[in-house]
């Protein structure tokens, strides 16, 4: 069993720093008044904030605009065109079946996201996402309720476990598995796959395989009379209702007990693990191959930002970022060359995207905690902090670039705080 409740030894090395909202405004003001080049940039950016130019007295989806004010009327610092960095599961087609539903946000819905795809699924109590496998690795986060998962190893051992809200699982590509909703009210979860064009509609289903295999072949394979195979499904089951299972202990015993028990741990208690980083601005929990070894291709952070706080200015050197917003209200600005910056608002059930190595921050603009997942197609979670970078440079070098004097430079946090609280 994995030592999943121990704080990872790598925790302090995962975070490297960034600037607060007030610090960011001071840097912008100082730079924009300090040189003719910066003045031209400020004038260019200011065009985006002209009230008369931005007014739109006629048609418009007012409800959508209220939800996304920073997209409809961007801050004056936005510039250029980064392409889409937002989509919502609430806009995605929902497939509803007896026993639950599913919908997905793939590269088709969010074209820049070529590395990761997300699926949101609900199963009622007893209902199955049927036995299946697929071409992509599967990472999952339990949003609600309880479920039982199974996965078979190539050596014939089987992993069976129960998961609850805040737990995760990881199934490698090609490994056959199942998910079943438990009592009292089934479950809802987020699935993340390491292929941008992956689709939940294109998985290998046991029902379809037996339906499209000659009965004589099935009879030879199973060692059963063809008459015994008459009740096999003739088409896909996908999501379907069933009786609640026996207890976890009875199910494990029924398949052979410890003799066939998987030596590999495929589940992890993410929400209940000690925070990797905790500050006045919030807390973050990081799970990657260093503390959950089976998760070789997907790294993740569960981030909580306090009201008024900020996930500091930073970037990730090893992968693009796919986000899922669980609760609260926030905004994110993504920066990329040349002079491209775009700001979007985010709410629960929204998906965010950040291109690889692009600078960004996430700010809590609501009155309750902002909670979201940061996902990466990578074995390890890595980030660089703007604050940490600035403070590790000789002060004269920083002054030459940002026109900040040495006293102001010393006020910038020296370490990667990950989350910065609102100044009182």
Q: What does the model show?
A:
With 424 residues, the protein is α+β, with helices and mostly antiparallel strands. It contains eleven helices and 25 strands. The chain has helices at 21-34, 36-46, 51-54, 62-67, 69-72, 206-211, 215-222, 248-254, 386-391, 395-402, 406-411; strands spanning 86-88, 95-97, 100-105, 117-123, 128-133, 138-152, 158-164, 167-171, 177-181, 187-193, 204-205, 239-240, 267-269, 277-279, 282-287, 299-305, 310-315, 321-327, 329-336, 340-347, 350-354, 359-364, 370-376, 384-385, 419-420. Strands 2, 3, 4, 5, 6, 7, 8, 9, 10, 11, 12 and 13 form a twelve-stranded antiparallel beta sheet that branches. Strands 1-21-18-23-16-15-14 form a seven-stranded antiparallel beta sheet, with no helix packed on it. A hairpin with a 5-residue loop joins strand 6 (138-152) and strand 7 (158-164). Helix 1 (21-34) crosses helix 2. The chain is elongated and about 85 Å long. The relative contact order is 0.19.
């Amino acid at each position: 069993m994995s030592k999943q409740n121990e704080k990872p030894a790598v925790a302090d090395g995962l975070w490297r720093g960034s600037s607060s909202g007030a610090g960011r405004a001071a840097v912008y003001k100082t730079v924009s008044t300090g040189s003719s080049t910066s003045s031209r940039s400020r004038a260019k950016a200011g065009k985006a904030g002209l009230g008369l130019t931005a007014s739109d007295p006629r048609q418009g989806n007012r409800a959508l605009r209220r939800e996304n004010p920073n997209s409809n009327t961007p801050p004056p610092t936005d510039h250029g065109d980064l392409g889409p960095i937002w989509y919502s599961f609430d806009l995605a087609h929902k497939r509803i079946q007896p026993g639950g539903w599913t919908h997905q946000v793939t590269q088709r819905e969010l074209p820049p996201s070529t590395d990761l795809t997300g699926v949101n699924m609900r199963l009622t109590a007893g209902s199955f996402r049927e036995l299946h496998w697929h071409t992509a690795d599967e990472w999952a986060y339990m949003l609600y309720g309880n479920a039982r998962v199974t996965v078979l190893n190539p050596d014939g051992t089987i992993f069976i476990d129960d998961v609850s809200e805040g737990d995760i699982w990881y199934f490698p590509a090609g490994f056959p598995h199942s998910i079943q909703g438990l009592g009292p009210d089934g479950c809802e979860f987020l699935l993340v796959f390491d292929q941008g064009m992956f689709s939940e509609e294109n998985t290998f289903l046991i029902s379809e395989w037996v339906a499209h295999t000659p009965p004589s072949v099935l009879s030879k394979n199973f060692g059963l009379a063809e008459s015994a195979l008459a009740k096999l499904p003739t088409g896909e089951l996908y999501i379907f209702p069933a009786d609640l299972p026996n207890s976890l202990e009875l199910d494990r015993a029924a398949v052979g007990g410890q003799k066939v028990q998987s030596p590999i741990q495929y589940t992890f208690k993410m929400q209940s693990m000690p925070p990797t980083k905790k500050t006045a601005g919030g807390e973050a929990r990081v799970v990657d191959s260093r503390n959950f070894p089976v998760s070789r291709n997907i790294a993740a952070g569960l981030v909580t930002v306090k009201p008024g706080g900020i996930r500091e200015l930073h970037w990730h050197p090893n992968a693009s970022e796919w986000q899922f917003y669980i609760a609260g209200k926030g905004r994110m600005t993504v920066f990329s060359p040349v002079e491209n910056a775009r700001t979007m608002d985010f709410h629960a059930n929204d998906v965010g995207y950040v291109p690889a190595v692009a600078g960004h921050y996430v700010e809590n603009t609501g009155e309750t905690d902002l909670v979201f997942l940061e996902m990466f197609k990578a074995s390890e979670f890595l980030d660089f902090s703007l604050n940490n970078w600035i403070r590790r440079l000789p002060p004269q070098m920083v002054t030459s670039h940002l026109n900040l004097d040495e006293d102001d430079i010393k006020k910038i946090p020296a370490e990667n705080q990950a989350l910065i609280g609102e100044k009182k």
